[in-house]
Amino acid sequence: MKLGVIILAAGMGKRMHSDLPKVLHPLAGRPLLGHVLDAATCLGAAATVVVYGHGGEQVRAALSTRACAWVEQAQQLGTGHAVMQAMPAVAAMDRVLVLYGDVPLVDANTLHRLIDAAADTSLGILTAMMDDPTGYGRIIRDATGCILRSVEQKDGTPEELAVREANTGFLVADRARLDAWLGRLTNANAQGEYYLTDIIGMAVADGVRVASVHPLTIEEVSGVNDRLQLAALERFHQQRLAADLMRNGVTLADPARIDIRGRLTTGRDCFIDINLICEGEVQLGDGVRIGPNCLIRDSHIGAGTEVFANCVIEGAAVGTGARIGPFARLRPEARLASDTHIGNFVEIKKAGIGVGSKVNHLTYVGDAQIGAGVNVGAGTITCNYDGANKFVTVIGDGAFIGSNTALVAPVTVGAGATIGAGSVISKDAPPGQLTVTRARQATIPGWQRPKKLPKV
Ligand code: UD1
Ligand code: CA
Q1: Which atom of ligand 1 is nearest to the CA of 76?
Q2: Do 111 and 150 fall into the same domain?
Q3: Long-range contacts of range 266-269, CB-CB < 8 Å, 24 or more positions apart?
Q4: The whole model's pTM is what?
Q5: Is ligand 1 within 6 A of the CB of residue 52?
């Protein structure tokens, strides 16, 4: 069975009041439409077609890496018209599933159930019981519970509108029969639109049993029309991610105050304090503790490491048993070995820090290779940039860098070397010796402070 997925995304999204097309607004850091495309991928769709609107080139460009076909619907003449535009692109499919680009949390399991429920008939629809179905199409059933048709809000009689079973708009159909039904659609209705939902009545008239399933949650089928709805779905999604973390053995100080925009994988017994934002791929080993207000992006944190409050960690790899922060910044290609200490107001970029080394205060380490057991004093700067090119600083095992040292790269400090505080090191410092560039301290005997001259 070859499945084609058609994603309707031509709507204007006026109520977002945004220059960004609605389906590109992010949820959990990814465009709404990206979530729907992921669901199609989960289903193993053989073809995926996105119907985009006039001016939707921005949407295509933003998702250009996705393996899907794009069809423009220049004028929005209704959901049925939108599907018609996409049918040539799924001509080789057996079945067609219709999804909406602005309904991001649709669950692949629910769609699997829908597809299975319709396996022995030509049409299956996803419907939901709602306390207030205002605005949705209503599902009209006969006395025995068989689906007869779907009626739009604007076309319904008061009795029809009293029905609480809403049409989510998602359906799966036999591709050839869908083609035939679409060919019979008219726009003779209250909105002058070609309603996709009219095919339900047509199927029944053709003697087709219409299968139906319900989603597990209303959020799965909730669309985003404005920024309030977007925020509500974001919170729902984050709560689910937080629950998954806790089920997997993570303690969260407050499950309502974590945001995962990407994928967070965790070991056993991690503790995460409030306001963590994770972006991209983040891995935490066993027993990692994350203090409050941290941002971690595309990084790996080894087992037993503690990250204190207010750290920003991006593209970094941290070994086991390290202590980071508070107020530390690890930038891309920071590679910290086990048992390293990185303290407050320290920035590390494209640098390896060896086992047990400490960079505890007010320091910049960029383009550097620091060995094991090194102590970098407060206020040390690797001067890696001459305004045109970047150069590397190498510090050997066991070196001690005195406070307020400028290491003018390219430069090497030998193993076990000591650098006197306040030095500007622009030539290699030999191993095992003290190197200091500071001017000698002198005390002038008999020196007197100047006295104020008498006023004239
Ligand atoms: C549609 C259904 C309604 C259902 C509701 C669920 C029809 C006629 N009605 O309502 O039964 O309860 O969805 O949300 O199908 N779109 C296009 N091109 C168009 C029109 C719409 O691509 O010409 C896209 C929109 O971008 C959106 C989706 O189709 O992603 C649904 O459109 P929307 O206007 O939100 O749905 P309704 O027509 O109100
Ligand atoms: Ca509408």
Answers
A1: 23
A2: yes
A3: 267/303
A4: 0.93
A5: no
